[in-house]
Amino acid sequence: MAAVTVPPKLLTLLIVHKLGRVLLGRKKRGFGEGYYNGFGGKVEPGETIEEAAIREMREEAGVDPVGLECRGLLTFHFDDQERPWEVHVYHAADIRGEPCETDEMAPVWFAVDDIPFDRMWADDPHWYPIFLQGKKFKGTFHFQNTHTMTSHAVQVL
Ligand SMILES: CNc1ncnc2c1ncn2[C@@H]1O[C@H](COP(=O)(O)OP(=O)(O)OP(=O)(O)O)[C@@H](O)[C@H]1O
């Protein structure tokens, strides 16, 4: 029988990186609640991935990202999800407006040497250093019971 390929779920992740700091948000609800992360979510029908990245940043922190660059592609295989997740990671050089807390996220600036990896997804330490160096990358990760990372492979492109 031919192998069935399940199309991945598309998501965005946007990290603002300016003057030696990154803007992250503490996720207040839903998937990844309690973790610090960039801003993002599911790509909706009819929008491009970049449009989704901009929309999610507005919805979650009330600001418009400026100078977007797609730097990475992360693929997550969860043993408790039907489809793999494909996360498109964007770098933003700046924002227009002041970040504000929303129902979903509480935004906080962190110095790049002080990123709270112990309160973030387990894959993050494997690709943030590459991202922060301005390089492009691709990564594949497996997770068990949502949160336990069981394998990781990251490639600088
Ligand atoms: C497993 N390792 C991971 N490492 C780093 N980041 C991860 C991640 N897994 C998911 N993410 C990000 O977490 C957000 C979830 O988004 P999520 O809240 O589900 O989306 P969205 O806002 O569309 O949902 P609702 O409309 O509230 O259902 C989204 O940015 C996505 O890229």
Write a concise keyword list for the protein shown above:
157 residues, mainly beta, Nucleoside Triphosphate Pyrophosphohydrolase, 8-stranded mixed beta sheet, 2 helices, 8 strands, 14% helix, globular, binds N6-Methyladenosine 5'-triphosphate
Topology, please?
Elements: E1 9-18, E2 21-27, E3 36-37, H1 49-61, E4 64-78, E5 85-96, E6 105-111, H2 124-132, E7 137-144, E8 148-156
Parallel strand pairs: 1-5, 4-7
Antiparallel strand pairs: 1-2, 2-3, 2-6, 4-5, 7-8
Commentary on this structure:
The protein has about 160 residues and is mainly beta. The protein has a single domain (about 10-155), classed as Nucleoside Triphosphate Pyrophosphohydrolase. The chain has 2 helices and 8 strands. The protein has helices at about 50-60, 125-130; strands at about 10-20, 20-25, 35, 65-80, 85-95, 105-110, 135-145, 150-155. Strands 1, 2, 3, 4, 5, 6, 7 and 8 form an 8-stranded mixed β-sheet that branches. A hairpin with a 3-residue loop joins strand 7 and strand 8. The structure holds N6-Methyladenosine 5'-triphosphate (N6E). N6-Methyladenosine 5'-triphosphate (N6E) binds next to strand 1. One of its GO terms (molecular function) is dATP diphosphatase activity. Its cofactor is Mg(2+). It is an enzyme of class 3 (hydrolase). It catalyses: O(6)-methyl-dGTP + H2O = O(6)-methyl-dGMP + diphosphate + H(+); 8-oxo-dGTP + H2O = 8-oxo-dGMP + diphosphate + H(+); N(6)-methyl-dATP + H2O = N(6)-methyl-dAMP + diphosphate + H(+); 2-oxo-dATP + H2O = 2-oxo-dAMP + diphosphate + H(+). It holds the Pfam family NUDIX.
